């Protein structure tokens, strides 16, 4: 490859900017021309592509969001949209593309790869729901935000001897709830991957107060249902009225943690090196500390395994 482009797509995540910076600077270091596509696949279709230099990515490593902006683009799901995107890259002589995003973004990258564009996917999503990588860019920051919020809730819950239902993001994946729940000592963690029994949840909460606990926190991944509904069901069963907090998009903003910046820097540089080596149609990841590549086709057809051991540990320790 001589000319590569980078785009961010799908829901944004903290550390996407650090990844863009790494792709641009690593590409330039290796003598490539590097381009950026604005607004994800929508920009690819609309030909919103510009050349980058070293300074184009200055002062962004510490910023949340993505300077390239992002979109969930329906038109790109059609074969015509994909062809137009590939043509817009080709007319500039761009033959390599790094896509930073989640599951949907990988599907787009997979299509482009089948149209002859050399593609590399980088896992950028707070959800940590991409298989063949232990971590996604943004997950560490999102978990830190949730832990910080629960610390604050605990203060006021303890003063009033109250319970809290906290709804966090994760449409199909309970990792944010699991990791934040273990790290903050939440009494109950509800995730889409594990069946739950509301009678047991309500009993556990009542038991928490009987055992002398001064608060009881139920962490709900949005894939399970609305925090408000869970709280109402608990009240029906035990008479306790938990306060509900929905953390929402706050989880997707703010400065990335050093872990996310380092992960993004490593993965961005790795993706460029793999393209230079001639690799294509791959998703980059990190497994047990090692940078890895897996066929995007395999990744989009697999599901991330849920860490049940960690889930059981969180349950045991929050007695
Ligand atoms: O996929 C990331 C994510 O933040 C999910 O956790 C959440 O369900 C969704 O995006 C929210 O999407 P939107 O940006 O469309 O509100």
Automatic annotation (TrEMBL):
<dbReference type="GO" id="GO:0048029">
    <property type="term" value="F:monosaccharide binding"/>
</dbReference>
<feature type="binding site">
    <location>
        <position position="11"/>
    </location>
    <ligand>
        <name>ATP</name>
    </ligand>
</feature>
<dbReference type="GO" id="GO:0016208">
    <property type="term" value="F:AMP binding"/>
</dbReference>
<dbReference type="InterPro" id="IPR012828">
    <property type="entry name" value="PFKA_ATP_prok"/>
</dbReference>
<dbReference type="GO" id="GO:0006002">
    <property type="term" value="P:fructose 6-phosphate metabolic process"/>
</dbReference>
<dbReference type="GO" id="GO:0030388">
    <property type="term" value="P:fructose 1,6-bisphosphate metabolic process"/>
</dbReference>
<feature type="binding site" description="in other chain">
    <location>
        <begin position="125"/>
        <end position="127"/>
    </location>
    <ligand>
        <name>substrate</name>
    </ligand>
</feature>
<keyword id="KW-0418">Kinase</keyword>
<dbReference type="InterPro" id="IPR022953">
    <property type="entry name" value="ATP_PFK"/>
</dbReference>
<feature type="binding site">
    <location>
        <begin position="102"/>
        <end position="105"/>
    </location>
    <ligand>
        <name>ATP</name>
    </ligand>
</feature>
<feature type="binding site" description="in other chain">
    <location>
        <begin position="169"/>
        <end position="171"/>
    </location>
    <ligand>
        <name>substrate</name>
    </ligand>
</feature>
<dbReference type="GO" id="GO:0046872">
    <property type="term" value="F:metal ion binding"/>
</dbReference>
<feature type="active site" description="Proton acceptor">
    <location>
        <position position="127"/>
    </location>
</feature>
<dbReference type="InterPro" id="IPR000023">
    <property type="entry name" value="Phosphofructokinase_dom"/>
</dbReference>
<dbReference type="InterPro" id="IPR012003">
    <property type="entry name" value="ATP_PFK_prok-type"/>
</dbReference>
<keyword id="KW-0963">Cytoplasm</keyword>
<keyword id="KW-0067">ATP-binding</keyword>
<comment type="pathway">
    <text>Carbohydrate degradation; glycolysis; D-glyceraldehyde 3-phosphate and glycerone phosphate from D-glucose: step 3/4.</text>
</comment>
<keyword id="KW-0460">Magnesium</keyword>
<keyword id="KW-0547">Nucleotide-binding</keyword>
<feature type="binding site" description="in other chain">
    <location>
        <begin position="249"/>
        <end position="252"/>
    </location>
    <ligand>
        <name>substrate</name>
    </ligand>
</feature>
<dbReference type="GO" id="GO:0061621">
    <property type="term" value="P:canonical glycolysis"/>
</dbReference>
<comment type="function">
    <text>Catalyzes the phosphorylation of D-fructose 6-phosphate to fructose 1,6-bisphosphate by ATP, the first committing step of glycolysis.</text>
</comment>
<keyword id="KW-0021">Allosteric enzyme</keyword>
<feature type="binding site" description="in other chain">
    <location>
        <position position="222"/>
    </location>
    <ligand>
        <name>substrate</name>
    </ligand>
</feature>
<dbReference type="InterPro" id="IPR015912">
    <property type="entry name" value="Phosphofructokinase_CS"/>
</dbReference>
<keyword id="KW-0479">Metal-binding</keyword>
<feature type="binding site">
    <location>
        <begin position="21"/>
        <end position="25"/>
    </location>
    <ligand>
        <name>ADP</name>
    </ligand>
</feature>
<dbReference type="InterPro" id="IPR035966">
    <property type="entry name" value="PKF_sf"/>
</dbReference>
<dbReference type="GO" id="GO:0005945">
    <property type="term" value="C:6-phosphofructokinase complex"/>
</dbReference>
<feature type="binding site" description="in other chain">
    <location>
        <position position="154"/>
    </location>
    <ligand>
        <name>ADP</name>
    </ligand>
</feature>
<dbReference type="GO" id="GO:0070095">
    <property type="term" value="F:fructose-6-phosphate binding"/>
</dbReference>
<feature type="binding site">
    <location>
        <position position="162"/>
    </location>
    <ligand>
        <name>substrate</name>
    </ligand>
</feature>
<feature type="binding site">
    <location>
        <begin position="72"/>
        <end position="73"/>
    </location>
    <ligand>
        <name>ATP</name>
    </ligand>
</feature>
<keyword id="KW-0324">Glycolysis</keyword>
<feature type="binding site">
    <location>
        <position position="103"/>
    </location>
    <ligand>
        <name>Mg(2+)</name>
    </ligand>
</feature>
<feature type="binding site" description="in other chain">
    <location>
        <begin position="213"/>
        <end position="215"/>
    </location>
    <ligand>
        <name>ADP</name>
    </ligand>
</feature>
<dbReference type="GO" id="GO:0042802">
    <property type="term" value="F:identical protein binding"/>
</dbReference>
<comment type="subunit">
    <text>Homotetramer.</text>
</comment>
<dbReference type="GO" id="GO:0003872">
    <property type="term" value="F:6-phosphofructokinase activity"/>
</dbReference>
<keyword id="KW-0808">Transferase</keyword>
<feature type="binding site" description="in other chain">
    <location>
        <begin position="185"/>
        <end position="187"/>
    </location>
    <ligand>
        <name>ADP</name>
    </ligand>
</feature>
């Amino acid at each position: 490859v001589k000319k590569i482009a980078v785009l961010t797509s799908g829901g944004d995540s903290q550390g996407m900017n650090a990844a863009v910076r790494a792709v641009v600077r690593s590409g330039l270091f290796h003598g490539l021309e590097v381009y950026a596509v604005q607004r994800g696949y929508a920009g690819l279709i609309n030909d919103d592509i510009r050349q980058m230099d070293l300074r184009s990515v200055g002062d962004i490593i510490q910023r949340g969001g993505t300077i390239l902006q992002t979109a969930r683009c329906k038109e790109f799901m059609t074969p015509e949209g994909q062809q137009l995107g590939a043509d817009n890259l080709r007319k500039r002589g761009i033959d390599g593309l790094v896509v930073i995003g989640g599951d949907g973004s990988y599907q787009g990258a997979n299509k482009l790869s089948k149209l002859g564009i050399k593609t590399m996917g980088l896992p950028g999503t707070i959800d940590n729901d991409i298989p063949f990588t232990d971590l996604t860019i943004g997950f560490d920051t999102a978990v830190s935000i949730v832990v910080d919020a629960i610390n604050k809730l605990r203060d006021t819950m303890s003063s009033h001897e109250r319970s809290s239902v906290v709804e966090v993001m994760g449409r199909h994946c309970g990792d944010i709830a699991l990791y934040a729940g273990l790290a903050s000592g939440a009494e109950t963690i509800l995730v889409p991957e594990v069946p739950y029994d509301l009678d047991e949840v309500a009993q556990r909460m009542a038991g928490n107060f009987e055992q002398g606990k001064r608060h009881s926190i139920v962490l709900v991944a949005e894939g399970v249902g609305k925090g408000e509904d869970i709280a109402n069901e608990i009240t029906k069963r035990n008479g306790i009225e938990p306060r509900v907090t929905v953390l929402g998009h706050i989880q997707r903003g703010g400065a990335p943690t050093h872990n996310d910046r380092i992960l993004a820097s490593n993965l961005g540089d790795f993706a460029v090196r793999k393209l230079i080596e001639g690799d294509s149609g791959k998703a980059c990841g990190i497994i047990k500390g090692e940078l890895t590549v897996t066929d995007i086709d395999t990744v989009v057809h697999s599901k991330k395994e849920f860490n049940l051991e960690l889930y059981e540990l969180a349950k045991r320790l929050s007695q």
